[in-house]
Amino acid sequence: MKKISLMVLLAVTMCGCGGRNEVNRVSFTRAMTRYLDQRGELCLAKYDWPIDVTAQDFKAGTRDAVQMPVLEKLGLVNSSEASAEKKQEDAPAITVAVRRYQLTENGKKYYLSRRISAQKQVSDFCAARLKLDQVVSWELGQHDNSVKEATVIYTYQVEAAPWTNDADARRVFPAVARVIEGAGKAQLREGFTLAPDGWRAKDSLD
């Protein structure tokens, strides 16, 4: 019995079952979980506050002109009349009237600091966080007769901010709405490379 147990243990050790460098669902699940822990926030590219919206912006229906009133309705921002300098191409800046939007205390809960590279952090207004649902499949790439790259296809779950349930919020943030509606069924793809410590996403922050 001891001899059989020793042989099984030796076989497991040699095959590296469950190792970080293995090509299997366990290793890719580990790598995807690690990646989404780092980069899973779904944010809106609203980095700098306050945000000023001019009468011309409202007339043109720009992104901020459409979205900011909805965020104000939801209590995430408040606004006031203000003035700001507007740069003009090949001409002096002019002062224009603007509607200035500031984050409320509730809105600040969603203004998160995010690391976008090993050296740089930014803050952004975020709507949700993605978590791994399951690894569906993977496609391997080879270089020099060895596997060095993989594309992982996966489904996800979403931890969405409560305000994203509002119909107007989903209307003015359609990309957020699509991601939320795709939870558990939509498939996303992420590229990985094989590093000494295991599979690592190509845009990993490590």
List the helices and strands and how they pair.
Layout: H1 2-15, H2 25-39, E1 41-43, E2 51-54, H3 55-60, H4 63-73, E3 77-88, E4 91-103, E5 111-115, E6 121-143, E7 146-160, H5 167-172, H6 174-181, E8 188-195, E9 198-201
Antiparallel strand pairs: 1-6, 2-4, 3-4, 5-6, 6-7, 7-8, 8-9
Largest sheet: 6 strands, antiparallel
User: How large is the share of residues in beta strands?
Assistant: 35-45%
- Note the gap between the termini: 45 Å
Helix content: 25-40%
Overall shape: elongated
Radius of gyration: 24 Å
Q: Which sequence of SSEs, written as H and E, runs from N to C?
A: HHEEHHEEEEEHHEE
Low-confidence stretches: 1-17
Number of helices: 6
What's the total count of β strands?
9
- The class by helix and strand makeup works out as alpha+beta
The mean pLDDT is 87
Please, could you describe this protein's structure?
The longest helix is centred in the N-terminal third of the chain and has 15 residues, at 25-39. The relative contact order is 0.17. It contains six helices and nine strands, in the order ααββααβββββααββ. It is α+β, with helices and mostly antiparallel strands. The strands form two sheets. Strands 1, 5, 6, 7, 8 and 9 form a six-stranded antiparallel sheet that branches. The protein starts with a helix and ends in a 5-residue tail after the last strand. A hairpin with a 2-residue loop joins β6 (121-143) and β7 (146-160).
